[in-house]
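Protocol step 4 of 5: obtain the predicted structure for the target chain.
Materials: sequence only (see below). No template structures provided, no constraints applied. The aim of this step is simply to have a reference model before the mutagenesis design in step 5. Sequence pasted as it appears in the construct record:
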Amino acid sequence: LHGHREDIPGPKWAAEGVDLMLTRVEVDYRRPLRPGDVFTVSVQVERVSRLKFCFVQEIRRADGELMASGRNYGVAVRNGRPFRYNFIEECCS
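Step 4 output (structure tokens):
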């Protein structure tokens, strides 16, 4: 299984020496997915503070039932140091 979004410029960030580093992951598992289940993963990005962001995610089965949800917090890092990177505004607005 592989997902890819054309509007997220990962290669550009790598060329700029930027890494997105997760600092905290929260997952609430509600129901198991079974082999053959069709599902979607939705992601929204929120700015949490000057440096931190959060990926808010939901996994829903094709019938709409919520299977899992999560909040993944992180920071942008360059040369080993966190910095304010406007990737949210760049790719997710």
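Step 4 remarks: Helices lie at 10-15, 87-91. The chain has a mean pLDDT of 85.
Proceed to step 5.
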